[in-house]
Amino acid sequence: MELITILSRRHRFRAFIYERAHFSADKKSIEVAVRPRKGSSAICSRCHLPAPGYDQLAERRFEFIPLWGFFVFLLYTMRRVNCRRCGIVAVEEVP
Q1: 3-state secondary structure 27-76
Q2: Which of 37, 59, 77, 93 could form a disulfide with 43 if both were Cys (CB 3.0 to 4.6 A apart)?
Q3: pLDDT averaged over the chain?
Q4: pLDDT the model gives residue 73
Q5: Confidence class of residue 32 from pLDDT cuts 50, 70 and 90?
Q6: For position 41, what pLDDT does the model report?
Q7: What is the CA radius of gyration of the chain?
Q8: CA 25 → CA 21, 34, 59, distances in Å?
Q9: 0.90 exceeded by the pTM?
Q10: Burial of 50 (0-12, 13-18, 19+ CB in 10 A)
């Protein structure tokens, strides 16, 4: 079974998809690329409601649950939203 399948079955994010997994350059950690599910809208981090996208920030590394003695990092490009309710451009809310 592949790592992506294990992650998808045991730790599922509704609006996101695990895309690919690979070892880091130093072979001490596993990096898993995550992308938004098609058709899912970003959630405003201020009012917690769906909002239209504005643009994307640089890719970030989020520490995840260690697996088999390896550190696991989720790589995700955060979206910014143009929230009309709040009247601001904010970074999307992520679980």
Answers
A1: CCEEEEEEEECCCCCEEECCCCCEECEEEEEEEEEEECCCECCEEEEEEE
A2: 93
A3: 87
A4: 94
A5: very high
A6: 84
A7: 15
A8: 13, 19, 17
A9: no
A10: middle
Residues in the chain: 95
Instruction: Give 74's pLDDT tier (boundaries 50, 70, 90).
Output: very high
Distance CA 10, CA 61 (A): 20
| Start-to-end C-alpha separation, the chain | 25
- Dist. CA 67–CA 23, nearest whole Å: 12
Copy the structure tokens of residue 81.
Answer: 């939203």
Q: Measuring CA to CA, which residue among 10, 55, 8, 57 is closest to residue 32? A: 8
Residue 11, both tokens? 């730790």
Q: Which residues pair with 60 in a beta bridge?
A: 76
